[in-house]
Amino acid sequence: MNRHTAREKAFQILFQLDMNDINPGKAAEDYLETMEIDAFLKKLVDGVASHKIEIDNMISEHLENWSIQRIASVEKTILRIATYEIKYVEDIPANVSINEAVELAKTFGDEKSGKFVNGVLSKIVA
Fold first, then answer.
1. Which residues neighbour 25 within 8 Å (Cβ) at sequence distance 6 or greater?
2. Among 24-33, 64-73, 88-97, which stretch is predicted with the lowest mean pLDDT?
3. Nearest 10 degrees: CA dihedral of 59, 38, 25, 102?
4. What is the DSSP letter of 38?
């Protein structure tokens, strides 16, 4: 599984976690069923789940006229994944994390999601 696909799968699993209070490992197993869990996918899901409070605080610090509670779950989940990559995964350049997040936002969000995600992540990186 390539990293782009792993990010898409991580988004879908973490989105499910945001909606339901279940264990991240169980959610990944349930979602993937027969597929083998990719190491990068597992790292994203476990990392975002275990650092969720710190990640949400980082995102909140870079929002203008918004609160983390007002952000739609799609954008919030994408921001969490990218913020985790930017702050905790050293072998991925920040611009790659941002570009991937914008692509996820274009795929799963609405027409304004990509710009919103890009703006917030650009502030986090600055």
1. 45, 46
2. 24-33
3. 20
4. P
Q: To which residue do tokens 């209070």 refer?
A: 21
Phi and psi for 54 in degrees, rounded to 5? -65, -40
* Distance of alpha carbon 53 from alpha carbon 41, whole angstroms: 20
What is the rounded CA–CA span in Å between residue 97 and residue 40? Answer: 13
The model's pTM is 0.87
Residues 58, 27: contact at Cβ < 8 Å? no
CA-to-CA dists, residue 106 to 47, 61, 110, 118, angstroms: 23, 24, 7, 11
Query: Where does residue 13 rank: exposed (0-12), middle (13-18), buried (19+ CB within 10 A)?
Result: buried
